[in-house]
Amino acid sequence: MKKLFTAAAVAASLTLGACANMQSNDLSTYNGVMAEAAAQHAIAKENGNVWKQKKMKKPYVDHYMAKAEEAKKKGDDAAAMKYAKEALKSARAEVRQTQAHASTEPAWLK
User: Fold this and answer.
1) How far apart are CA 91 and CA 108, in angstroms?
2) CA gap 37, 51 in Å, rounded
3) Buried b (16+ CB within 10 A) or exposed e, 15-47
4) C-alpha 13: how far from its chain's center?
5) DSSP code of residue 55
6) What is d(CA 89, CA 94) in angstroms, rounded to the nearest whole number?
7) What is the pLDDT at residue 61?
8) Over the stretch 1-22, which tens digit does the pLDDT of each residue have?
9) Residue 43 contacts by C-beta under 8 Å, 6 or more apart in sequence?
10) Does residue 110 register a pLDDT over 50?
């Protein structure tokens, strides 16, 4: 069972790695950055690797995306882009961590 789970995790990480390297969104625009952040965060959610502190009501990516939306509504495009890029950076890091540790097994399972 462990080997089956490990093989499935490795296959999933390779598939997700290929998807993560494909950039379909224009990352020079606000909408492109937000769409890419949402896509990367969805991959992280699918793998159960969402970064969040216990006291936070939302994960980091959702927090930054909300701040970006708020800044966009106020008309502050520079701040909106800053928070959108921060959300994208966090989402990519979640996915990268998932891929890097896909084949890692806990020591207590051996």
Assistant:
1) 29
2) 14
3) ebeeebeeeebeeeebebbbbbbbbbbebbeeb
4) 14
5) T
6) 9
7) 94
8) 555 445 455 555 656 555 555 5
9) 16, 19, 20, 95, 98
10) yes
What would the pLDDT profile of 62-89 be if each residue is shown by its tens digit? 999 999 999 999 999 999 999 999 999 9
Contact in structure between 98 and 14 (CB atoms under 8 Å): no
Residue 63 burial (CB count, 10 A): 17
The DSSP result for 12-42, as a single string, is HHHHHHHHHH---S-TTSHHHHHHHHHHHHH
Instruction: Indicate the pTM of the whole model.
Output: 0.70
Q: Which residues contact 1 (CB under 8 A, 6 or more apart)?
A: none
Please state, in angstroms and rounded to a whole number, the distance separating the CA atoms of residues 71 and 103.
Answer: 40
